[in-house]
Amino acid sequence: MIVLRLPGGLSVRLHARALAVGLAGALVAAALGVLAVAAGDYPISPADVLRVLAGGGSPADRFVVTELRLPRLATALAVGAALGLAGAVFQSVTRNALGSPDVLGVTSGAATGALVVVALGSGSPALGGAATAGGLATGALLYALAGRPGAAGQRLVLVGIGVTAILTGVNGWLLTRAPLTDAARAALWLTGSLDGRGWANALPLLAALAVLLPAVLLARAPALRLIEMGDEAAAALGVPVRRVRLGVLAAAVLLVSLAAAAAGPVSFLALTAPHLARRLTRAPGPNLLPAAAVGAALLVAADQLAQHAVAGHQLPVGVVTGVLGGGYLAWLLAGERGGRR
């Protein structure tokens, strides 16, 4: 067991294997990021990429790296980390392996907010703010419908499935109301894409991660681990269950909403990353840091696959995460059935 001291007298206990998995995932994500920045129509060696990041390199290399490719990489890392982290929180709070923002409707709510803007004919600058507002409103609706005593476990998942079904119908109707060109752009956004992303897309999410990761999520990780044992047991051990649950859910919903605003609703990543992190760490609890690192590495890898899998064409990254994440879920369910669990 390793204890990390945080400002304000807070501390976080981490299993050594969980910390190792988190560090390894961060290193893999960084290595994949360097390779991603190096690849492209204007190839740059990984050594030159590192030289530019250290403040050197030729003017052409600096322009390509810092202005064209690094913002996309920063967006991918931030979105992947945010979705992995939020997925781990949702699965921990609901005590359900399927408790991800995709299933619970938060992602669909962010899409609804964006589509309202598209249907009204507003410009792209308002899209990110509308997606954030839609995700936050859906999170508040879920908490209200589930009820504070029932905002965990099966009840929240079932309410989320119903909300997702409603919002899916609303989103389809909004697409039919939008002008044809706007509807085509909205359909591309709905698949999840990192194409053309700049610093304006990455910075709000990076700032949210910098604040929420230490201040809310890591500080509440021990309480989340106790809540997984059941509300009664956690309350008996002195955990303010409702306050902790509301705080971590609000933080997770905000991260999902900002991630959707930055790259669109990237599917299945918030479901898959925590599962992989838990299998790698073999440790109880939400595994927040490993899930964030695994999510970042997965999205960078998926983006590279999306750019180079089909010669002459770039796929939206959400297509790749949907195919791979759906395949992983099918394999996981088949394994659970084979093991009679």
Outline the structure in words.
The chain is mainly α and 341 residues long. It has one domain: ABC transporter involved in vitamin B12 uptake, BtuC, CATH 1.10.3470.10. 76% of the residues lie in helices and 3% in strands. The protein contains 14 helices and two strands. It has a two-stranded antiparallel ribbon. A hairpin with a 3-residue loop joins strand 1 and strand 2. Helix 5 packs parallel to helix 7 and helix 12 crosses helix 13. The radius of gyration is 20 Å and the shape is globular. The two termini are 30 Å apart.
Roughly what percent helix? Answer: over 70%
CATH architecture: Orthogonal Bundle
Described by the principal axes of the CA atoms, the overall outline is globular
Overall structural class, as computed from helix and strand content, comes to: mainly alpha
Largest sheet: 2 strands, antiparallel
Strand order of the largest sheet: 1-2
Query: Termini separation (Å)?
Result: 30 Å
CATH class: Mainly Alpha
Uncertain spans: none
CATH topology-level name: ABC transporter involved in vitamin B12 uptake, BtuC
Order of secondary-structure elements: EEHHHHHHHHHHHHHH
Rg, nearest Å? 20 Å
DSSP helix count?
14
Instruction: Report the portion of residues in β strands.
Output: under 5%
Instruction: Tell me the number of structural domains.
Output: 1
